[in-house]
Every structure is written in structure tokens, then in C-alpha cells.
Write a structure and sequence with these properties.
The complex is a heterotrimer. Chain A is mainly alpha-helical. Chain A is built from 17 helices and three strands. Chain A folds into four domains: 42 residues; 34 residues, no CATH class; 62 residues, no CATH class; 206 residues, MetI-like fold, CATH 1.10.3720. Chain A has a two-stranded antiparallel ribbon with strand order 1-2. In chain A, helix 10 packs antiparallel against helix 15 and helix 13 packs across helix 15. Chain A is globular, with a radius of gyration of 30 Å. Chain B is mainly alpha-helical. In chain B, a hairpin with a 2-residue loop joins strand 7 and strand 8. In chain B, helix 4 crosses helix 10 and helix 11 runs antiparallel to helix 12. Chain C is an alpha/beta fold. In chain C, the strands form five sheets. Chain C has a five-stranded mixed sheet, with helices on both faces. A three-stranded parallel sheet of chain C has the order 5-2-6. A two-stranded antiparallel sheet of chain C has the order 3-4. Classes of the chains: A mainly alpha, B mainly alpha, C alpha/beta. Chains B and C meet through helix 3, helix 6 and helix 13 of B and helix 3, helix 5, strand 11 and helix 6 of C. Strand 3 of chain A pairs antiparallel with strand 1 of chain C, so a sheet runs across the interface.
């Protein structure tokens, strides 16, 4: 075959053509993500239509917002004057006028710097816990923060906060001494004993003595002054702070070899998880007082914090139990093989892994807990959602307002809870050490 | 520990209770037991002293007193002459009713949303994300308040159906009226009704029992026929046609029964202030139902999503390689495997839903918390007793659900040998 | 801060209080603060303003007692209570007295072991309807849907009334009055029922109050009054006679304006006994001579308190009606100060 002479042969490259319309830019994106099939297209259109419908229904109300007014009547007058007789509109002035009530409750105005400072310091104290690249020394600040925040918010003498912390120091010293002289279990017992004895008998006189020598005090603010988001935060943060260690202990108790401890933990966890929070709050309000020595009573806010803490501790215990269950037996055996004691093994090997696995669950428990602080209204505490709103509506100026306070608190709750859930996602991603 | 056991045992010494890891457990437990008993004893003695001081004696006698109030939503017979105990029972039935309804819809909705969040359709996926985030991060109480108020605001009052030229019209050829108080539905009536059976606590309609019995019987017989068909298919390779017998068995008997009982409908009609006749389903049911389901569904969606993502990608790819379409891959390959991860947290969401139904007070739904823990508590003033009883009842419900969960967990656990 | 407080546990510091003595009076005096249970927010009767200052008709009662006992009407811790928690809060000693529009009933007094010291407001349950409904009497409400606020005796009265008149009704029992009002305004119920004072207060807040009418029937007696625990007669007397002092002051014409002048002594021996320029009535209930004077000074006499909080000059606009003095056609009748 010799006359294969003239094959087609290109001497010049054709310039690259633009991809077809449907394959580029916005069109491509829409084609792939919105209208990839007829069904998909229909769903897209219907969904957009529904969203648009809802927006058009509620938009005028939001557009006709009034930010400055002294009362609901004034709001209505402004709305009618500006947008016509039959126009409806939002009256955000209620939030504007009652802002302090929503944020601080009845906290004395002159003392607002205290909760504000406590909040700022909270952020500082949380830093080393939340973000690992902060200087590790800061963890000491986080450790003393609870006492500091207690002093800032409730006031009284500064030395109480100090002596509370000294109780922990006493316990730690006792632990060191007793462990050296005897053994670890005795050390723990001695530590607990020392701390409790300190708190019961020494702390009071020492605090008043120090106060006498160096008077540092803030005006005392009783907890009936707490309300609004300040209350939600205090209840939420205390419960979060205390329920984590308690939950860890409970989860360990539930897996313990000692039948008595195990049974107690199981009964406690199942009981708390089995009843609605409302009944526990009622317990805090009604029943706790019956179980205290006759004539004694203590603060309702504190009782509520205790109950909410117990509630979330039981949930956290279950979350961590899930994490513990996911750890291979080999890890426990390896710890034993290294000769670690039970607590060493838990602290160095088991818990770091179990907690890491449990982070999403723990954070969503915390989110739930924070949202549940809105229920404290049923025992008469003024939570931001219904409590403060009730109080605001009970004034003749604002009686009759409905949506605005709800929307406002909803947005604030959303911001904080959403923030928490995003943080947990960030943490999950960062701690992910396995490769899938 | 193993070292300690290898050591020769040189008899028991008291110090071993502290130092020997074999005995230390007993020491700790004994101490713990003492502490526990002391604590409980202290609490109980305090309680006794307090009650004596106040001159109160806890007693559940009030449960047998006349309640004196009315409950708008009652699934079992109740009048204001019934007892407080009966009111609590009405509340309990309502709680269980809304919980079961809520669990069903929350699961369905949650699975749909969870799957749609992974959809390739951008708008749908985003919208589902927004839905999940909004519902998960805002307190349920607020959602219930909003949903209840919206339901009331967007539906017409019964008055709107009045007059020659009403502003609202009944649906489905004049048989259903949606109002801001209730949805009025036609009620089935029987001319030759079998009557009611008194079960002690509540009455049950024999017509309903007969209907259920006939349907169950039909399904069972149908199953036998289907099994026989499968056997024939296995033996001969040919499957006998069964669709007509299935249809006949499932639809036939109920239709015949209903005809024999003389089924006709009682349509609601506006008389006076309200619709009369038919079934009036109060809006509080819908508000609570929507609220609880939508809220819980957001959590379930996350569980479902996590479950789906937990199934290894190889499974999906293998299914695709076998030529299964995405829908079938999801339903035949991914979801069944994801179920093992999904179900335990799912059941604990059911538990949460049941407990969250105590927020019914926000929408005027008469649940256990509203009757026993609300009006009864207020009227009798027996706070201690009411709350204890309420806790006990919820505890029992939860333990039952937990027990079911444990049974399930055991049955689906990966068998590792 | 006393060191004894620490015995209740250090974490509880400042938040705990041991009140182990049998006398409420000495407890309150030792504490220096009166714990008074109030509503979480009820227009005109008790609500905090934007600065956390509590005002209202019931609150004024607390203030008068605090002034009588402690000499300062601001030394009060207001404890907001809900319908469920109010009586247990009192029984458990969390509050010293309850001034939360609570109806005096047989069962509450004898079954719950509470003492109602008197009546500071005679109320009664009524109905409110939309004018366009064309209803002019509660007897025409057969078949209606009725919004009822739970947490009081309201549900019982409602059931009793409809039973007596052989009518049917559907209750919508709502805990929170704002929700109830929302439902009522949207037409989800034909009538709204609560105490007549509440109805008037509620109607005042509507955008168009004239579109609504309060029906003439009052279906129940609701004597509302302050409550204390049983078993401390002295404390019950203090609260009871503080209430009577306010009522008596109105009858005798003592107001916050002429109080100083009258307390120097007048020709009326009863007035002198009341204000402490003669005799020592206060000493008989463990207080000093001037207790009643301070109580009246706190917020004025009964009539002044009424006018300032719920009277016709306020947006709530309640007429005195049953709550006028006995010699003006009402039921307010102070027991003589002899």
C-alpha cells in the first residue's frame, strides 16, 4: 500500500473554544446544583416559592419597625402615622427601653461593671480551655476564675473567694503529705477531709479575719436581683462547669467493678434522665426545702443551679460512657501492663481519648442545658424568655406586646447556641487524629 | 494487680483492707454504703421533722376527691365530677398520645431532612441546614409559643364560616373546617353499632375493635397466601398471581364490615359559637405536635446524617458498581447499615420528646404536667405528692423506653467472635 | 457577713440562711429583710419596673409590713412565685408572707395549714367578650369556647357556673395571661375569664378597648388577701393589723400628707392609739408604738394605695366598688383599734 500519501494533517492548532453555556459559570453551577433533573428542578422552584412567600408575609412587619418609643401606645401611634391606619409593625422599642432588664435583670445599675467584667474574664478564662495554642500558664487563671466570678457577681468580702480557693490548696497539700506518708487512697481521703474541714471551720474565721486586716469588699448583691440573660448565663455556666467533672465521675462509677458504686451510679443516672427537667425544677423549688434541717433554707438560684447541674451531669455521664465504650480493651490492658494505677490510667490514657470522642455529645448537652435555662420561669425565676417578658408586659407601658421579646430572646439564644455548636465542629476537626 | 495475686498469701491482716487492692474495693464500698445510709437517713429525718413542724401529712387521698375542673382534650371519659386521679389519667393518656404521634412524625421528618441535607440540590441542602440549625439552637419553649400563636393567627375563627357570604370556606366539599380553635372533621357513625365495652378505666368502641380485628385477620391470611406463593415460586420458578387476593383480603372484609355496621358520616356544622358534630381536634394538639416533631426532627436529622456518613464509602461505591440507582443504594445498602448507629440515639430522642411534652403548658394542651402537675396541684395544694407522683410516672415511661432500647441494642449488636 | 453563715457550707456562702427560730418576727428583724412572695408580674398588683423596683397593689402590702416591722419599706426581698410554687414557698419558710392575689378558701386555710390574715381586695370572676359577638350576659355563653387562665380558682368556678346553668363550654386553659390574651384577640376563644380586676386591666391594654365588653355577671367570690404560715400567731397578727391599720387610716382620714401632723396627737383617741401618740398597741404584737404610722407612711392609707396602683386615675381604672369603706357601700371594714 504505497499510495497512502495524503493523510489529513493539521498544521495549526485550533484555538480553545469557550465551553458551552451550560458548562460554565453560574449556568453550570445552577445546572449541577439546582436543576440536575426535572424532579430536582421542581423541588428547587417550589422551595424558593415557599421561602419567598414567607418572606413577603413577614417582611412588612419587620420593615415597619419602631426603635424609639416610650410605650406600646406611642409605638402604635408612630406606626399608624407613618405607614397608614391598618399597618402593623414591630415595636423594638420595647427591647430598647428594657435592655438593662433583659441583660442584667434587676442588678443594681451602679454595679453593672461587675457582671460585665465577670463576662469578659470568663472569655479570658475560657481561652486556654477552648484554644490549645494559648499559653498554658493561663490555665491557673481559669482555675481561680469560678471563685473570682462568684465574688464579682454576688459581692461581699473578697477574702471569701480567697478562702474558698485555699480549701482546694489545703486539700492538695493534704494529698501530697498523706500520699507520701501512706498511700494514694488514704491521700485522697485526707485531701477531701482537709478541704471540707477547712471550709466548714477555718474558712469563715479566716475570711473575716483577713477582711478585718485588709478590707476589700464589694456591695453584696442578693440573687433575687439576678435575671434576664445574666441569670441564664450564671445558671448555664455553673451547671456546665460543675456537671462535666460530675459526669466523668458518674460515668466511671457506672463502669466500676464495685457493685455498690455501680448500682448507685446507674440508679442516679437513670432516675435523672427519666424525669423531665420541669419536675426537677419543681423539686428544687418545693421538695429540697423539705429535706433540709427544719428552718434552714437556701437560695432558690443556688437550688436551681444544683438541680440543673445534676440533670446535665447524668446526660454527660451517658455521653462519656459512650466514649468509654468506644475505647478498645487494649488501651485498658496496656495501662495495666505499664503498672499505672486506676486514676493514673484514667487521667493519662483513657479519659483523653474518651473525652475526645464525646466532644460533640458533650457540647450538644451543653447547648440543650443552656436552652433549658428558659424553664426556670416555672419556679418564679425571671429568665429572659418568659420571666423578664412577663415582667415587662406587666407594666402598663408595654402590656400588649407579643412577638418582639420572643424574637429578641430567640435570636440571642440562637447566636450563643450556634456559636457553641460551631466551636464543637472546629474542635472535632482539630482533634481528629485518625485518617479515614 | 496480677503481681499482687502471685504473691504468697500470708493471711489476713487488718491493714490489707487499705493496702491490698483485692480488699480495698470492699473497704471503699462499705464506707460508701455508710455514707449513703447516713445521707439518706439525714434527709428523711429532716423531711419528717419539717412535715411535722408544718402540721402536714403527705397523703394521696386527694386523688380520690372531685376534680371540679374541665379538660378540653380528653381521650377517655372525663367530666368535672371525675376525680383528681382520673384527671391525672386523662393527662397521662394525652401525654402518651402526643408522644407517640410526635415520635412517628419526628422520625419520618428527621429521616427525610437528614437525607436531604446530603442532597446534591444546593437550595434543598442549604434550606435543610438552616432548618436544623434554627430548630436546634432556639429553645423549644419559644418554638411552641411561636407555633401556637402563628397557628391561631393564620387560620380563620369559626365566625368566618358564618353568613350567606362567608370569608372562609370548608374544605373537601364542605366536610372539613379549619379554624383557629380546632380542625372540625367528619366523624364516622354506625347505625347498627356494636356499642362500647367497659374496660374499667376507659371505654372502647366495639366497632373499632371489630374493624381492627378484621384488618389484622385479613393481613395474616394474606401473609399465608404470599408465603405459599413464594414456596411455589421456589419449587417451580413460577409465581402465582396474588395481587387480587391481597387486594380482596385487605380491603374486602373491612368494607363489608363497615357496610354491615351502617357507616355514615357525621359532618360538622356551625351552630352557635362553634362547630357541632364531627370530631373537633383542638389546635393545641397540632401546635404541640408540630412543635415537638419539628424540634426533635432537627436532632434526628443530625443523627441520621451522622449515621449515613458513618457507613463506609466503599459500600456506596460497591452498590453503584452493582448498578443500583442512588435511591435504591440509599434504601437497600446505606440506611440498613446506618440503622445500627442511628437507633440508640434515636430512641433517646424519643425519650427526650416524651419529657419535652411537659412544655405543653405553653400551648394549653392538657398533658400530665398540666393536669396533675398544674391544675390539680394548684387546687389541692399537694405539691409534694403531685410532683413525686409525676416523677414516678415519667420514670416508668422512660424505663420502659430504655428497656426497649436495650433489647434492640442487643439484637443488632455486631456479632464479634 | 456573719461567720455563722459559713456553717451552711462554704460554696453556699452568702446564699444560705439559717432561720431556725420559731418566731418569724425575730427572724425578720435579725435578717433585716422581709421576704415577701409576689406575682411574677401582674399589671397593677405586682410587677418590677425597668429598674427592678417593684410596685403594685399587693407589693404595697409588703412594703407596709416591712415599714412596720423593720422601719424601712425598702428592706424587702421580693420573691416572684408562680401559681404552683407560692404556697410551698410559704410553708418551707422561703418567704415570710405571701401577697399574691390569692383567694381565701376553706381548703387552703385548713388543708394547707395557711392563715389568710384578711382581705385586701374583694374580687370576683367575670367574662369579657368581643362586642361584635352580640352577647350581653354570661348566660348566653352556652357552647362557647372560653379562655381561662389557670393557676387560681378560676377553672373550678367556671365549671361550677356552667354546670349550674346547664350549659356546655370548651375551656382553653392557659398558664400565661399574655398567651391567653393573644388567643382571645385572635378569636380563638369567644370569651376570656379571670378575676374582674384582671379583665379590666387586660382590656385597658387592647389596641381598641371599646370593641370589648365585660359581662355583668360575677360568677364567684374571690376574697384576695395576704397569707402567712400557721403556727406563728404573733406574725399573723402583725400582718393582719398592718392591713387593718391601712384600712382604718382611710376611714379616719389619715393620709400620707397629714400623717405627720395627726401623729402629734388629736382629739380622736382611736386615731391616737393607731398612730401611737396614746397607748402602746404596737408593744402587744412585739413592735414599737409607731409601727402603724410607718406602715401608713410607706404608701399611704388603703385608699391611696388603691388609687395609686389600680384606681380610676391609672390605666387600669378600677372603681372601688366592693373595696370601698363599709360606710361608703363597700366591704372594707377595719376591726377597731381598742
Amino acid at each position: 500500500m504505497s499510495d497512502v500519501t495524503q493523510a489529513f494533517h493539521r498544521s495549526q492548532m485550533i484555538p480553545a473554544r469557550e465551553p458551552p453555556r451550560s458548562q460554565r459559570g453560574a449556568w453550570k453551577w445552577m445546572h449541577e446544583n439546582l436543576f440536575s433533573s426535572i424532579g430536582n428542578g421542581v423541588i428547587t422552584v417550589v422551595t424558593i416559592a415557599i421561602v419567598l412567600y414567607i418572606v413577603t408575609l413577614s417582611l412588612p412587619w419587620f420593615l415597619h419597625s419602631v426603635w424609639n418609643a416610650k410605650s406600646l401606645t406611642e409605638c402604635r401611634t408612630i406606626i399608624h402615622a407613618t405607614w397608614g391606619e391598618n399597618a402593623g409593625g414591630a415595636c423594638w422599642a420595647v427591647i430598647h427601653q428594657n435592655w438593662n432588664l433583659y441583660v442584667f435583670g434587676f442588678y443594681p445599675i451602679a454595679q453593672y461593671w461587675r457582671p460585665t467584667l465577670a463576662f469578659v474574664l470568663l472569655l479570658v478564662a475560657l481561652m486556654p480551655i477552648l484554644f490549645s495554642h494559648m499559653p498554658r500558664k493561663m490555665i491557673w487563671f481559669s482555675a481561680v476564675y469560678p471563685a473570682l466570678a462568684y465574688w464579682l457577681i454576688w459581692g461581699g468580702t473578697f477574702w471569701i473567694a480567697v478562702t474558698i480557693m485555699l480549701g482546694f490548696v489545703a486539700g492538695w497539700l493534704a494529698l501530697r503529705v498523706a500520699t507520701r506518708l501512706a498511700n494514694a487512697p488514704l491521700g485522697v481521703a485526707a485531701a477531701v477531709l482537709a478541704a471540707v474541714l477547712w471550709w466548714l471551720f477555718a474558712a469563715g474565721p479566716v475570711a473575716s479575719g483577713l477582711q478585718h486586716l485588709v478590707p476589700i469588699r464589694l456591695p453584696f448583691v442578693a440573687s433575687d436581683k439576678l435575671g434576664g440573660f445574666l441569670l441564664a448565663f450564671i445558671v448555664g455556666m455553673c451547671a456546665i462547669g460543675f456537671s462535666l467533672p460530675m459526669g466523668i465521675l458518674l460515668s466511671l462509677g457506672r463502669r466500676s467493678d464495685m457493685p455498690l458504686i455501680k448500682t448507685t451510679s446507674v440508679v442516679f443516672i437513670e432516675f435523672i434522665r427519666g424525669v423531665p427537667l420541669i419536675t426537677l425544677l419543681f423539686t428544687a423549688s418545693f421538695l429540697l426545702a423539705y429535706f433540709l434541717p427544719p428552718g434552714t433554707t437556701f437560695d432558690l438560684v443556688l437550688r436551681v443551679i444544683i438541680m440543673v447541674t445534676l440533670f446535665s451531669a447524668a446526660y454527660i455521664a451517658e455521653v462519656i460512657r459512650g466514649g468509654l465504650a468506644a475505647i478498645p480493651r487494649g488501651q485498658f490492658e496496656a495501662a495495666d501492663a505499664l503498672g499505672l494505677t486506676y486514676w493514673q490510667a484514667q487521667r493519662l490514657i483513657i479519659m483523653p481519648q474518651a473525652l475526645k470522642i464525646s466532644i460533640p455529645g458533650i457540647v450538644s448537652t451543653f447547648i440543650g442545658l443552656f436552652k433549658d435555662t428558659t424553664l426556670v420561669i416555672i419556679v418564679g425565676l425571671l429568665d429572659p424568655l418568659m420571666g423578664i417578658t412577663n415582667a415587662v408586659r406587666a407594666s402598663t407601658l408595654w402590656n400588649g406586646i407579643y412577638w418582639e421579646p420572643y424574637i429578641f430572646s430567640g435570636v440571642i439564644f440562637f447566636i450563643f447556641c450556634f456559636g457553641m455548636s460551631r466551636y464543637s465542629m472546629y474542635l472535632e476537626g482539630k482533634l481528629k487524629t485518625d485518617h479515614r | 494487680m496480677s503481681l499482687a495475686e502471685d504473691r504468697p498469701d500470708s493471711g489476713f491482716r487488718l491493714s490489707k483492707l487499705v493496702y491490698d487492692s483485692r480488699y480495698r474495693g470492699y473497704t471503699i464500698q462499705a464506707l460508701f454504703l455508710c455514707a449513703l445510709f447516713i445521707a439518706i437517713g439525714w434527709l428523711l429525718s429532716n423531711a419528717a421533722a419539717n412535715l411535722a413542724r408544718l402540721g402536714l401529712s403527705p397523703s394521696f387521698d386527694f386523688l380520690w376527691n372531685r376534680a371540679g375542673y374541665d379538660i378540653s382534650l380528653k381521650l377517655i371519659h372525663f367530666t368535672n365530677d371525675s376525680t383528681h386521679g382520673r384527671a391525672a389519667l386523662v393527662g397521662l393518656v394525652n401525654t402518651l398520645f402526643i408522644s407517640v404521634l410526635g415520635c412517628i412524625t419526628a422520625t419520618v421528618l428527621g429521616v427525610i431532612v437528614g437525607v436531604l441535607r446530603l442532597s446534591k440540590n444546593w437550595v434543598v441542602a442549604r434550606l435543610m441546614t438552616v432548618y436544623v440549625e434554627i430548630f436546634r439552637n432556639v429553645p423549644l419553649l419559644l418554638w411552641l409559643l411561636i407555633i401556637y400563636a402563628v397557628l391561631t393567627a393564620v387560620t380563620p375563627a369559626p365566625n368566618a364560616y358564618r353568613g350567606a357570604n362567608p370569608s372562609a370556606h370548608m374544605w373537601f366539599w364542605g366536610s372539613v373546617a379549619i379554624t383557629n380553635r380546632y380542625i372540625a372533621l367528619p366523624a364516622p357513625m354506625f347505625t347498627h353499632s356494636l356499642g362500647f365495652a367497659d374496660l374499667g378505666i376507659f371505654w372502647i368502641s366495639l366497632d373499632f375493635v371489630a374493624l381492627v380485628a378484621v384488618i389484622v385477620a385479613g393481613v395474616l391470611i394474606n401473609r399465608v397466601i404470599l408465603r405459599r406463593a413464594s414456596r411455589i415460586q421456589e419449587a417451580t420458578g413460577k409465581r402465582p398471581t396474588t395481587w387480587w387476593s391481597t387486594l380482596l383480603l385487605i380491603l374486602g372484609p373491612p368494607v363489608v364490615l363497615l357496610f354491615a355496621l351502617g357507616l355514615h358520616w357525621d359532618f360538622p356544622a356551625l351552630k352557635g359559637f362553634n362547630f357541632r358534630g364531627g370530631v373537633l381536634a383542638p389546635n393545641s394538639i397540632f401546635a404541640l405536635w408540630f412543635g415537638l416533631s419539628a424540634y426533635t426532627a432537627a436532632f434526628i436529622a443530625e443523627i441520621v446524617r451522622a449515621g449515613i456518613l458513618a457507613v463506609s464509602k466503599g459500600q456506596t461505591e460497591a452498590a453503584h458498581a452493582l448498578g443500583l440507582r442512588p435511591g435504591r443504594t440509599m434504601s437497600l445498602v446505606v440506611l440498613p447499615q446506618a440503622l445500627r448507629v442511628i437507633v440508640p440515639p434515636l430512641i433517646s430522642e424519643f425519650l427526650n420528646l416524651t419529657k419535652n411534652s411537659t412544655l405543653a403548658f405553653a400551648v394549653a394542651y392538657a398533658d400530665l404536667g398540666a393536669t396533675l402537675g398544674g391544675i390539680t396541684l394548684n387546687q389541692s395544694g399537694r405539691a409534694l405528692e403531685c410532683i413525686l407522683l409525676m416523677m414516678l410516672i415519667y420514670l416508668i415511661i422512660s424505663l420502659v423506653i430504655s428497656a426497649v432500647m436495650n433489647v434492640y441494642n442487643r439484637s443488632v449488636r455486631l456479632k464479634e467472635r | 457577713m456573719k461567720t455563722s453563715v459559713f456553717l451552711a457550707g462554704l460554696a453556699v456562702a452568702g446564699l444560705a440562711a439559717a432561720a431556725a427560730s420559731a418566731s418569724t418576727l425575730s427572724d425578720v428583724q435579725k435578717r433585716g429583710v422581709l421576704n415577701c412572695g409576689v406575682n411574677t408580674g401582674l399589671v397593677g398588683f405586682g410587677a418590677p419596673d425597668a429598674n427592678g423596683h417593684w410596685t403594685g397593689f399587693d407589693v404595697a402590702m409588703c412594703r407596709a409590713v416591712a415599714a412596720a416591722v423593720l422601719g424601712d419599706s425598702s428592706k424587702i426581698k421580693f420573691v416572684p412565685t408562680s401559681g404552683e410554687t407560692r404556697f410551698t414557698a410559704l410553708q418551707s419558710g422561703e418567704i415570710d408572707m405571701l401577697a399574691r392575689n390569692s383567694t381565701w378558701t376553706f381548703k387552703r386555710e385548713n388543708d394547707l395549714k395557711l392563715t389568710f390574715v384578711g382581705v385586701n381586695y374583694y374580687d370576683g370572676q367575670g367574662f369579657m367578650v368581643k362586642k361584635s359577638l352580640g352577647v350581653s350576659s354570661a348566660k348566653e355563653l352556652g357552647g362557647a369556647t372560653i379562655c381561662v387562665q389557670t393557676g387560681t380558682t378560676t377553672e373550678l368556678n367556671l365549671a361550677d357556673y356552667f354546670k349550674q346553668h346547664n350549659m356546655q363550654y370548651t375551656p382553653i386553659s392557659i398558664k400565661n395571661d399574655a398567651e391567653g390574651k393573644q388567643q382571645f384577640l385572635a378569636g380563638a376563644c369567644d370569651a376570656y375569664t379571670t378575676d374582674a380586676s384582671g379583665l379590666a386591666a387586660l382590656r385597658a391594654t387592647f389596641e381598641k378597648p371599646a370593641d370589648y365588653v365585660i359581662l355583668p355577671e360575677i360568677i364567684s367570690k374571690e376574697p384576695l388577701g395576704p397569707v402567712v404560715r400557721q403556727g406563728d400567731e404573733q406574725w399573723a397578727s402583725i400582718v393582719r393589723w398592718t392591713l387593718y391599720a391601712l384600712i382604718e387610716a382611710e376611714e379616719l382620714g389619715v393620709t400620707s400628707k397629714n400623717l405627720e401632723e395627726l401623729s402629734k396627737g388629736t382629739k380622736n383617741p382611736e386615731l391616737n392609739r393607731l398612730l401611737g401618740s396614746e397607748d402602746n398597741l404596737g408593744g402587744m404584737i412585739g413592735l414599737d408604738k409607731l409601727w402603724a404610722k410607718r406602715a401608713i407612711a410607706a404608701g399611704g392609707n388603703y385608699g391611696e394605695i388603691f388609687e395609686a396602683n389600680i384606681g380610676t386615675s391609672t390605666p387600669i381604672g378600677l372603681a372601688r366598688g366592693l373595696n370601698a369603706q363599709w360606710n361608703k357601700g363597700g366591704l372594707m371594714y377595719a376591726i377597731p383599734f381598742h
